[in-house]
Amino acid sequence: MPIEPSTASAHAAPSADAFLQFLVNLVNNGSQLESIGVTLQMGGMLVSGSIVSGAEYFDRFAASFTGSLDMLDTDSRDAVRRSLAELGDVFRVPQPVDPLPNYIHLADALFFTADGTPIAGQPTLWRGRTSSVDGFILGRLQSETGN
Questions:
Q1: Element (H or E) spanning 95, and its range?
Q2: Domain of life, per the record (predicted)?
């Protein structure tokens, strides 16, 4: 018996985990919860870090990026930093419950293979789509060096 289209869509997997999106929204709203340690399973690898608000992500990204622009004068670097930081302005106001956030922002992100082997690299800022997360656990993985 063929599956009716309405029946097929009723059983389709959600595009993103609403619980994870709820946690992201808690941090984005910047109440007393500034970050949440989390390990995300994504396409056969693990990404581990602290969920931070979109505002903090863009502020930190702007500072890091413009810090590497030593070929520019101070005024130009400041203009670039301000422009990048403005991308986080949408997160500086209370976030609605609906729609749920489409992106998750991590600070101090580390990457691991599916078996937990660290992939070389320094802790970094990371941004990803909530719809790309296959699963997650609360808490961060640590590399053997203790980063």
A1: none
A2: Bacteria
- DSSP assignment, residue 22? H
Contact between residue 46 and residue 112 where contact means Cβ atoms under 8 Å apart:
yes
Task: Report helix, strand and coil shares of the chain as percent, to nearest 5.
Answer: 35, 30, 35
User: Residue ranges of the domains in the chain?
Assistant: 18-138
CB atoms within 10 A of CB 83: 11
Kindly give the residue spans of alpha helices, DSSP state H, lying in 68-107: 74-86
Please give the CATH number for the structural domain made up of 18-138. Answer: 2.30.30.100
DSSP single-letter state for residue 96: P
Q: What is the pLDDT of residues 42-62, one digit of tens each?
A: 988 999 999 999 999 999 999
- Per-residue pLDDT, 93: 86
Contact present, 119 and 50 (Cβ < 8 Å): no
